[in-house]
Amino acid sequence: MLWGRAADSSLVGRKAVILIGLSGTLISSLGFGFSTTFYQALLFRSLGGITNGNTGVLRTMISETIREKKYQSRAFLLLPMTFNIGVIIGPILGGLLSDPAGSYPSTFGDVEFFKRFPYATPNIVSAMFLGMALLLCWLMLEEVCVTYLPRFRMMVADASDSQLSRRQSRCRDHLGTQIEEMVPTKKRLYSLHSASLARHEL
Length: 202
Description:
CATH class of the largest domain: Mainly Alpha
Radius of gyration: 34 Å
Order of helices and strands: HHHHHHHHHHH
Shape: elongated
Number of domains: 2
């Protein structure tokens, strides 16, 4: 509910909510991997659960990005498909990478880092995937919130109006200078015309 309201607000938007969720999950994964007590692990897992409100926002963004109804069903299949892939690959990677000092004593048995933090490796790999997703969302994801975009466009319009007003003022100043320069010329032409008429009368 909290992240849904933030995604619909004009101050946060959907893209910011997704970036916050990815950042919170990334910090949670790293903190959980380097935890040495139960309360530290509980704290970081709670942080990941609090900040991760991406599922509902992603479904909303899919429906707002894919306008044609015939393609929406295909787009909505991406979420469960990626979830199922993660459910299959995640435990495999976790089992292969966790406790390398105990699982592969001949290779990593003497490494003090793996002895002190036996579950850091799978969480570091997970954080790397999250970091790549965070970078891609930051660079390539477009904001689609209808209440956030008008505010952004209003800011752009205000900036454009201020630039336009400055240009108009410069144009007025330039035209005023040209008019002031033209006034003596008009007076000179009028005097020459009057002199020519006087000669013609004589």
